[in-house]
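Structure ticket #2291
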Amino acid sequence: MCPIGGGICPITHESKLAILIAVVASFLFGYLWYGPLFGKTWAGLMGFKKDDSKCCGKPPVSALLITLLGTGFTVFALAYILGRYKPHCNAGAAVLVWLGFYVPLLLGTVTWERKPWKLFGLNAVYYLLNLQLISAVLTYVR
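Resolution: structure written out below.
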């Protein structure tokens, strides 16, 4: 029985490997996106200075572990949601998750935290692609 909502839980023992691979793939994608690909752009949009240890230094192990834990939560939740759809619908379901949950939160960073729209765009595209990556792994790795 599923602990949430009763019924049979769609996350089965066969999908544990897919969940693990999706967590690692998502974590590495985040490293690439906010590191070598767009790290300098992101740091500038966040208002960090070059000599600021928050942006340019080696991240503490605790930050990496917390990020890995959060990535695990995201993958597990998306696996649960996608388990309710037919596999050919997973990419669309991931877009709905992005549109319904991520975009509104990111809009709040522009309206309330006064972050620039370019930062919104950078983060929004990252989350959309990341959810598509997770969805693809959960769909095709069995």
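Closing remark: The longest helix spans residues 117-140.
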